[in-house]
Amino acid sequence: MSEIRIGNSLVGDGHPCYVVAEIGINHNGDIDIAKKLIEAAALAKCNAVKFQKRTIEVVYSAEELERPRESPFGTTNGDLKYALEFGKDEYAEIDRHCRQNNIAWFASCWDEASVDFIEQFNVPCYKIASASLTDDELLRHTRSKGRPILLSTGMSTLEQIDHAVEVLGKEDLLILHTTSTYPALYEELNLRVIPMLKHRYGLPVGYSGHETGLSTSIASVAMGACLVERHITLDRAMWGSDQAASVEPQGVAHMVRDIHLVETAMGDGVKRVIDREVPIMKKLRRVDTKNSGI
């Protein structure tokens, strides 16, 4: 059985689906919003929340940072990127607040210095964002920390995924099927990729959704996803590039509930007459056979 351990949880076939609420940059640079999102995810019974960490001047070129972009924080893309980035004090508060709310947290790190920064908090795993799947040096640096890795595969070919898996190695690795459009259209989701990835790599496979609804994220579990990640927001109408592809707290709670209902309903695949059917069978069936299975 293919599985990984994230903190105290085993994740893989035969284990409860691990649900991650991605806060990402939906905190809009406000630690109080981040704390409210942590509380909402914990109340919805998610297993973890996830953030994004970047060294701005490494990830983005000077030209990109100077590009005009209107936001509540200024008139350039750099004004926005720096405003959305939390530092040590904010992450220390995030770490404390997650412990207080009994929920795990980790981050997708977009550069090596960000991995080193997050490592000080002893996170249970790292995520490689789809945008970083082809960054071999970042993959190797993340792997050097010896922690489980979630590899997101949006906007990637099978050949690119093959290479990333070769670079990372299969130990403590989980692959996430995803479509990198925000929000994603239903015809873009291609959930049948989930069992294909499981067969191709022999690894646990999860689903990271960016669609507007919940039904397909829940359906991914029936397709074999052992981890589901969705962006969480306090209000989809809030300012921010990821808010529209996110789920509000009540929706996250419904999703977690329905994921576990689907898991219960999946059963073991063995056809049998269950005990509660027997009185119904005796009442309704006119003719029985010796091969009734009772």
Question: Can you lay out the helices and strands and say which pair or pack?
Answer:
Blueprint: E1 3-6, E2 9-12, E3 18-24, H1 31-43, E4 48-53, H2 56-59, H3 62-66, E5 68-71, E6 74-76, H4 77-83, H5 88-100, E7 104-109, H6 112-119, E8 126-128, H7 136-143, E9 149-152, H8 158-168, E10 173-178, H9 193-201, E11 205-209, H10 215-222, E12 227-231, H11 249-266, H12 278-284
Parallel strand pairs: 3-4, 3-12, 4-7, 7-8, 8-9, 9-10, 10-11, 11-12
Antiparallel strand pairs: 1-2, 5-6
Helix pairs in contact: 1-5, 10-11
What is the number of helical segments per DSSP (H or I, 4+ residues)? 12
Read across the widest sheet, the strand sequence of neighbours is 3-4-7-8-9-10-11-12
Structural class per helix/strand content? Answer: alpha/beta
Shape: globular
Element-level helix/strand string? EEEHEHHEEHHEHEHEHEHEHEHH
CATH homology superfamily: Aldolase class I
Radius of gyration equals 21 Å
Q: How much helix is in the residues? A: 25-40%
User: Ranges with pLDDT <50 over ≥5 residues?
Assistant: none
Separation of termini? 32 Å
CATH level-1 class: Alpha Beta
- Beta-sheet strand percentage? 15-25%
Q: How would a textbook summarize the main sheet? A: 8 strands, parallel, barrel
What CATH calls the topology is TIM Barrel
Mean pLDDT: 96
Number of strands: 12
